[in-house]
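Lab notebook, bench 4. Continuing the backlog of folding jobs that were queued last week. Each job is logged with the same field layout so the records can be merged later without manual cleanup. Today's entry covers Efflux RND transporter periplasmic adaptor subunit, a 389-residue chain. Filled in by technician R.K.

JOB TYPE: sequence-to-structure
TARGET: Efflux RND transporter periplasmic adaptor subunit
LENGTH: 389
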Amino acid sequence: MNYETQVAGDAPARIFGEEPRSSKRRALTIGAVIAIILIAAAAWISMHGKGEDAAATVEEAPVVTVLVPGQSIVPRTVSGTGSLAARVDMPVGVVGEGGQVTRVLVQPGDWVRAGQVLAVIERSVQTEQIRSLAAQLEVNRADAKLAQAQLDRAQALVKRGFISRADIDQRTATRDAANARVNVAVAQLAEQRARTGRLDIRAPAAGLVLTREVEPGQIVGSGSGVLFRMAKGGEMELLTQLSEGDLATLRPGNSATVTPVGSQTEFSGRVWQVSPVVDPQTRQGIVRIAIPYNKEIRPGGFAAAKIVSGTATAPLLPESAIQTDAKGHFVYVINGRNEAERRGVEVGQVSPKGVPVTRGLNGGERIVASAGAFLRPGQKVRPQVQKAG
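JOB STATUS: finished
OUTPUT FIELD FOLLOWS
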């Protein structure tokens, strides 16, 4: 065997023995490198994803403006409801003999003067009686004039002795009786004229006509009841029932605001009477609030009142901080973990300065000033504090 034969014989051994073993080692090395790369990539992706999630969580927390209200001096108010009425209600009826109504001169809502005629009653009989009495008065005056003339002539003749002193006395008595009959006739005529004048139904004072219960052709008399109802001077009032505890805080002169049902307008009024007694059954008393005339104030209607009974200290918040739902008024308080917490509150009368919170806050909390409607209890926020306005 020569050298070439030997070399040729070893070639298959190198190809099919040593080279396959080297390929396996290279494959294992490449696989290990790939595995390390994949593990590192997974770790990097995991860490990067957590960072993005954390950043996203921080970015999702909304920024809200909060304030610490502290304590402010605010008006202390008492709330109540009640009925509207005329402060001085004047019923107007028949004061004379009555009769058939011929004319009605006013309508509900009209303003009238004191003594103005509201309705006229037929008076043909009374007119004839006045004429008769006036004629009788003229007869009596003529008789008195004749008696005076006869007395004057008798006094001129008594000095001549033609007439005795007794005749003078007689004629003087006749003259005096005639004058008395004149006075009686004058009084009777004035009485009849007064009776006839009372047939007119007149306003007892200046004011506003509220109701009318009479029509032309109607027969009225002393038993006909109320024909017109008036509010003296047009002044109105609200009668509201309050507890005895609230009554103790009120005095005549306290200011109040009255809001009729169905109206958004508030009317300024003033307490003019606080009931001196308390109903033993309801433990309530009546407070009467005087209100100037306004066409939206209708007697018999219903209204709400807020009465200023003094001052107190309470947190003062802007209206935007107060939320309302079926459970009542509430605010969002930001706790130490920067989470929104719902807090139920009671509020007082709204003023240009804000809304006083009478119960539920002590003034040291961080209150969401606005955008509370977009928050939910437990939500994380990023608060920015501002000073209370």
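OBSERVATION: DSSP finds four helices and 23 strands in the chain.
SIGNED: R.K.
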